[in-house]
Amino acid sequence: xxxxxxxxxxxxxxxxxxxxxxxxxxxxxxxxxxxxxxxxxxxxxxxxxxxxxxxxxxxxxxxxxxxxxxxxxxxxxxxxxxxxx
Length: 85
What we know:
Layout: H1 4-14, E1 19-24, E2 31-37, H2 46-54, H3 58-63, E3 68-74, H4 76-81
Parallel strand pairs: 2-3
Antiparallel strand pairs: 1-2
């Protein structure tokens, strides 16, 4: 069973300076959703942004320990345009 803070720390380790919120969507420790706002996403496609987030979690995705991670990713500029909702 994984903890949202563990996932958050892994993402922050790969994308320092990011704003990361992670929630356990089912309470079972294997289905999560994350919102990541990162300067590293500037000029990148959504697919490229998601690849950057999934990269530090590959071990847990491959083992099935992390079964699902729904992502919402934004550059700081994109987030600002959305009004930081």
